[in-house]
Every structure is written in structure tokens, then in C-alpha cells.
């Protein structure tokens, strides 16, 4: 594919919206590195995010997330970056994303995500009695932030991950030529 990335491509969206899955596909398509901020954070802290949440709490996690995200975005090598679902909560992160990346919001309904993640045990914020209600609450708070930072919003309702990835690729590649 003859597409030259002049900025990082960052994916934002709720937990389970497909950032890691679709990010990997895009990086392969464009032959650039893929970085999952959650994985980079786990390398930095030396344990899982779930363990870190339990030991240190969410505010400390957000400090680490901010530091790791800023470091990754300052890399001159252009990459596809899957952000953590809550990265947009901090204004500093929103500014960094808007300054150093083209941002794609993978918009998916809480209902669809709840179905996808029925058996998930790794996402600390969803280990509650009613994960669907939690997703509704997260969506209400975060949707305006995701939209604020996004250059593109791609809705994935009823599409497979491969189809969503295809849509994102088209939007970004067309955007470069418009
Ligand atoms: N469009 C889609 N249709 C169906 N399943 C999907 C779609 N996108 C992702 N999935 C599946 O949903 C699950 C969650 O996707 P993924 O881990 O990529 O989300 P994420 O946005 O990276 O989540 P997190 O913020 O928690 O890291 C995976 O099992 C993935 O295969
Ligand atoms: O939605 C969130 O706040 C989070 C999502 C994950 O990607 C991780 O960054 C962490 O579990 C927090
Ligand atoms: Mg992920």
C-alpha cells in the first residue's frame, strides 16, 4: 500500500472497542510498528494492569499511563498506537494525542461491547456485577472526550473486526489525499 504516515495513528475508544485488534491490522497494512500502550505500561510497571490497579489504585495508574503515552508519542518513528480506554480522561493526554497523532475513535455501543467481553476477566473496570451498566457509565463520561480528540469517528456496529479495520484504513488513506 503506497501510503506514507506523516503522524502516528492513534486509536481511542471504550475497552473492547477493538483498538488492539484493529491497530495490529493497520500496522501490518502500512508496514509500521504497532504499539499497545497497555502493553508498554505493563512492561514499565513489571506486572499486569489489573494487579497494579489492585495494589496502587487508579490515580497512580493514570500517572504511569500519562508518562508512557507521552514517551511513545514523542518517538519520531511513526507508529500505530492503541491507547488505553481511559487515556482521554486527562487533558494532558488529549493535548498530546491531538498534537502528535491522527486520532481515530472506534465507536461501538456499550451493548455490543458487553456481548464481546462477556467472558473477559482482565479489564479491571469491568470486573463488576453489571459490566453493561459500567460500560454505559464509561460511555457517557468518555464519548465527548473521544470525539474531542478524534480526526475520524468509525462506527463498528454489526461489522467484523476485519471490516472495521478496512473502514479505518480507507478513511485515513483517503484523508491523506483530500
Ligand atoms: N468489530 C468487532 N467485531 C467483533 N469482535 C470484535 C471487534 N473488534 C474487536 N473485537 C473483539 O473484541 C474483543 C476486544 O477487542 P480489543 O482487545 O481489540 O479491544 P480494545 O479496544 O483493545 O480493549 P482495551 O481498551 O480493554 O484494551 C477481542 O476479543 C476482539 O477480538
Ligand atoms: O478504560 C480504562 O480506563 C482502561 C482501559 C484499559 O485499556 C487499560 O488502560 C486499563 O484497564 C484502564
Ligand atoms: Mg487493548
Provide the CATH top-level class. Alpha Beta
Give the beta-strand count: 5
Which ligands are bound? adenosine-5'-triphosphate, (3R,4S,5R)-3,4,5-trihydroxycyclohex-1-ENE-1-carboxylic acid, magnesium ion
CATH superfamily: P-loop containing nucleotide triphosphate hydrolases
Q: What's the quaternary structure here?
A: single chain
Tally of discrete structural domains: 1
Q: Please state the structural category.
A: alpha/beta
Low-confidence stretches: none
Corresponding CATH architecture: 3-Layer(aba) Sandwich
Q: DSSP helix count? A: 8
Helical proportion, percent range: 55-70%
Helix and strand topology:
Elements: E1 8-12, H1 19-30, E2 34-36, H2 37-45, H3 49-56, H4 58-73, E3 80-82, H5 91-100, E4 101-107, H6 110-116, H7 131-149, E5 152-155, H8 161-177
Parallel strand pairs: 1-3, 1-4, 2-3, 4-5
Helix pairs in contact: 1-8, 2-4, 3-4, 4-5, 6-7
The chain binds adenosine-5'-triphosphate, (3R,4S,5R)-3,4,5-trihydroxycyclohex-1-ENE-1-carboxylic acid (SKM) and magnesium ion.
Task: Give your account of this protein's structure.
The protein is of the alpha/beta class and 178 residues long. The chain has one domain: Rossmann fold (3-Layer(aba) Sandwich). It is 55% helix and 12% strand. It has eight helices and five strands. It has helices at 19-30, 37-45, 49-56, 58-73, 91-100, 110-116, 131-149, 161-177, and strands spanning 8-12, 34-36, 80-82, 101-107, 152-155. A five-stranded parallel β-sheet has the order 2-3-1-4-5, with helices on both faces. The longest helix is centred in the C-terminal third of the chain and has 19 residues, at 131-149. It starts with 7 loop residues before the first strand and ends with a helix. The protein binds adenosine-5'-triphosphate (ATP), (3R,4S,5R)-3,4,5-trihydroxycyclohex-1-ENE-1-carboxylic acid and magnesium ion. (3R,4S,5R)-3,4,5-trihydroxycyclohex-1-ENE-1-carboxylic acid binds next to loops.
